[in-house]
Amino acid sequence: xxxxxxxxxxxxxxxxxxxxxxxxxxxxxxxxxxxxxxxxxxxxxxxxxxxxxxxxxxxxxxxxxxxxxxxxxxxxxxxxxxxxxxxxxxxxxxxxxxxxxxxxxxxxxxxxxxxxxxxxxxxxxxxxxxxxxxxxxxxxxxxxxxxxxxxxxxxxxxxxxxxxxxxxxxxxxxxxxxxxxxxxxxxxxxxxxxxxxxxxxxxxxxxxxxxxxxxxxxxxxxxxxxxxxxxxxxxxxxxxxxxxxxxxxxxxxxxxxxxxxxxxxxxxxxxxxxxxxxxxxxxxxxxxxxxxxxxxxxxxxxxxxxxxxxxxxxxxxxxxxxxxxxxxxxxxxxxxxxxxxxxx
Length: 344
Ligand SMILES: Cc1ncc(COP(=O)(O)O)c(C=O)c1O
Description:
Order of helices and strands: EHHEHEHHEHEHEHHEEHHHEHEEEH
Number of strands: 12
CATH architecture of the largest domain: 3-Layer(aba) Sandwich
Structural class: alpha/beta
Strand content: 15-25%
CATH superfamily of the largest domain: Type I PLP-dependent aspartate aminotransferase-like (Major domain)
Bound molecules: pyridoxal-5'-phosphate
Distance between the termini: 21 Å
């Protein structure tokens, strides 16, 4: 199967499996797992943040950040297709007592300008309006098609937010993809934000795990919330060992996934009925409209399985994601399948 549904589907590499088997472990609830500690220190060093904590999922990392930055009754300003708003249940309401204030990006890129954010803020206004507690950004932006938040835009948003005493959290589930595409370091992209979450288990290829980073006191408090949410794991070094391999080895090959995504987009653009601008595919996520093919997205995905290709349908669109288990030859197979499915 050529699995293009997500970059979460990668299987651990041989090096990861070896590292997992040989991992030195201890009880991480006591802070005694040397491999988890090494992963946390290394992530903090790479991101230039004071501290990091290993969490089981990206969702937990994001939700702990929201909990720590906000008070119940506040709003979280977020782009309307943001993962935190659309795919993390109603966790910000259930866990933090906050509600999202979704904002549409006028240019459709999913990347908000400061003006768009500012228009949605409630700071120091009427007492009967829920105040803004947090601005949540996403880089790269998953549901907008892997689009990019530049370093300068991040800096501008954070500077203006901080002038208003508002914290900024970055959902950087795929920040290494963003850094690769922008030719920036992850530290530069994350420097101005108050907290950042990134996933080891997406494009980086680890089987499990994400990291939340920020100031030391913030991460110490995050440890309590991780426990409260049931995320205090014991000999988690077995997982952290794979995470360390992912962190050290995968970033340098992400450009291959981006090249495969662009190749896929260019091929798709030639298929009648498919609407996609290949120039807009800058990372590993491709979302394209199939409404003019006359076949529903779900039906196309179902038929693609006969060609051993898996993709995800969303309304009139299909999402395909490249990752290290997808080769350039696999892209040829997927394109051949798409052509046949759509022209049948
Ligand atoms: C942008 C983004 N943020 C957060 C997450 C949540 O990660 P997890 O599935 O580990 O909870 C995802 C998962 O797909 C994502 O795409």
